[in-house]
Amino acid sequence: MIGFAMCGSYCTHQKALEQMRRLAQDGAELQPIFSEAVFSTDTHFGTCEALKNEVLSICGRPIIHTIVGAEPLGPRTPLEVLVICPCTGNTLAKIAAGITDTAVTMAAKAHLRSDRPLVIALASNDALSANLKNIGHLLTRKCVFFVPMTQDDPEKKPHSLIADFSLVLPTLEWAKKGRQYQKIFI
Asked: Are 33 and 4 in contact (CB under 8 A)?
């Protein structure tokens, strides 16, 4: 089973859902995981109920959205791979620092303690500033792999990076083999 976690980069949720659909169409069994904010926040990009219903129809299983619900995803309920798509800079920083205060960070901690691959599809406005050290730290961690990323708007958002969501699946396949899909930055 593949864990598919979503954080609050609401503007990228449709791109993330496309990848979730592709995985499901390829026959993957998916366990959806939402941060508490994603599970309960309506935005101008859509309502949380609409997002939950869409994810339930794709995955066919309940969404994990609490720390207690995510804790068994290590040894008791192992995932083959955990994908965080999108992963915000906030969640990235917490994973790098070992903080487990959301369902997504708990899922990552539980998953990594079993030395299984974690794939991060970053979407962060401060990736090339405050979060750059966290990217560097996680690049050195065993079992952590990044979906290749690029600047989404170098002129107006010079510190922002966003994953190329179309590369989630090849990154996941390489991660299963213990390898980082190249290039990380495009």
From this structure: yes
Q: For residue 2, give the H/E element and its range.
A: strand 2-6
- Give the separation between CA 84 and CA 94, rounded to whole angstroms: 13
Average per-residue pLDDT for the chain: 94
Please indicate, yes or no, whether the overall pTM of this predicted structure exceeds 0.85.
yes
Spell out the residues 6+ positions from residue 65 whose beta carbon is closer than 8 angstroms to its own.
Answer: 33, 34, 35, 36, 38, 39, 103
Contacts (Cβ under 8 Å, ≥6 apart) of 154? none
The pLDDT confidence band at residue 186, using thresholds 50, 70 and 90, is low
Q: Which helix (H) or strand (E) holds 149?
A: strand 149-150
Percent of the chain with pLDDT over 70: 99
For 128, phi then psi, to 5°, come to -100, 15
Look up residue 61 and give its two tokens: 């299983």
The answer to whether the beta carbons of residues 172 and 2 sit under 8 Å apart is: yes
